[in-house]
Structures are given as structure tokens and as C-alpha cells.
């Protein structure tokens, strides 16, 4: 089984230009892949980068999205998905202010059987008229990103 992916392979799996990975490193958005000229990305790093891109696509700042996927609960969830362990679905719950370019007020990662309001002191902020609430199934995102890696590997096997 392939253990690591090159920058070009990682970019292909994620559907981005490999220059984007360099920009992320330069701007200190994502420092995965080790140091040196020949960076290599692990399975968990590729899954987490893909998850961060998915969360970013939902309106969360990319740097914040990487902080979310680096949280120990998210990291453990993605690692369990990669090795095939059965875990209850985990959700990302967050409130944000859409008038301030999506400034996040609060966020938490929890099992979906936990009431979403438990993690927030007051889900209604009456001082701000428009507040956004995002609930994302991180388990589904993790499984989709793992499927992206598996599809890439299958395609590589077909080309060989």
C-alpha cells in the first residue's frame, strides 16, 4: 500500500494546482508534507487537506478550516476512517456572522446524537440580526476524501 504522496499526486487527488500547495506553505495556511525540496504527504494529511477545502467551500476561511481539521477530534476521526474503524458520525457545528465575511463566533466537533445547542451558550445572538449556523458531517467528508485517494490509486493501477 502506498504510504505517501508527492506534491503533484496530492494536488491531483485534491483537484488543485500544485502551486496552491506551495502558496499555502508560503502563507502559513498549511505546513503539511515535511520540510525540504521533496515534500511527501501522508494519507491523513491528504484527507485533512481535502476536508479543509470542503469546509472552505461552505464559506469558512481556509486558514480556519485547517485549524478545524487539525483539532484532535477531527484528526482522530479521519485517522479512524482511513484504517477502517467504525465510529459514530461526527459533526462540525459552528455559528458565524455572515455580515463580517463569515467571522466565526463558536464551533465544536461532536457526535450527531449530541444536541447541537449544548456546545453554545446562547445560539441566538440578539445583538446581531443575521447569524449563520453551519452543521457539517465531518465523517461523510472524510469518507469522500478517502474515496478520492482510492480512486486516484485505482487509476494509477489501471495506467500501469
Could you outline the blueprint of secondary structure elements for this entry?
Blueprint (H helix, E strand, L loop, with lengths): L3 E3 H8 L3 H9 L13 E3 H14 L5 H9 L1 H12 L6 E8 L5 E9 L20 E6 H22 L1
Antiparallel strand pairs: 1-2, 3-4, 3-5
Helix pairs in contact: 3-4, 3-5, 3-6, 5-6
Largest β sheet strand count, sense and barrel closure: 3 strands, antiparallel
Helix content: 40-55%
Helix count from the secondary structure assignment? 6
Task: Note poorly predicted spans.
Answer: 115-130
Order of helices and strands: EHHEHHHEEEH
Read across the widest sheet, the strand sequence of neighbours is 4-3-5
Structural class: alpha+beta
Q: What percent of residues are in strands?
A: 15-25%
Q: Which descriptor suits the 3D outline?
A: globular
Radius of gyration: 17 Å
Describe, in plain words, how this protein is organized in 3D.
α3 (43-56) packs across α4, α3 crosses α5 (72-83) and α3 crosses α6. The strands form two sheets. The protein has a three-stranded antiparallel sheet with strand order 4-3-5. A two-stranded antiparallel ribbon has the order 1-2. It is of the alpha+beta class. The relative contact order is 0.15. The protein has one domain (4-159). The chain contains six helices and five strands; from the N terminus they run βααβαααβββα. The two termini are 15 Å apart.
Amino acid at each position: 500500500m502506498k504510504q505517501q504522496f508527492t506534491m503533484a499526486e496530492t494536488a491531483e487527488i485534491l483537484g488543485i494546482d500544485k502551486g496552491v500547495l506551495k502558496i499555502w506553505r508560503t502563507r502559513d495556511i498549511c505546513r503539511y508534507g515535511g520540510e525540504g525540496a521533496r515534500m511527501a504527504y501522508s494519507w491523513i494529511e491528504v484527507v485533512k487537506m481535502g476536508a479543509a477545502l470542503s469546509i472552505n467551500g461552505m464559506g469558512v476561511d481556509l486558514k480556519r478550516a485547517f485549524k478545524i481539521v487539525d483539532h484532535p477530534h477531527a484528526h482522530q476521526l479521519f485517522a479512524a476512517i482511513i484504517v477502517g474503524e467504525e465510529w459514530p458520525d461526527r459533526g462540525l457545528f459552528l455559528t458565524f456572522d455572515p455580515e463580517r465575511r463569515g467571522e466565526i463566533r463558536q464551533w465544536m466537533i461532536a457526535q450527531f446524537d449530541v444536541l447541537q445547542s449544548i456546545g453554545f451558550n446562547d445560539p441566538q445572538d440578539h445583538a446581531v440580526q443575521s447569524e449563520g449556523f453551519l452543521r457539517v458531517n465531518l465523517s461523510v467528508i472524510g469518507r469522500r476524501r478517502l474515496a478520492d485517494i482510492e480512486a486516484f490509486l485505482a487509476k494509477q493501477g489501471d495506467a500501469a
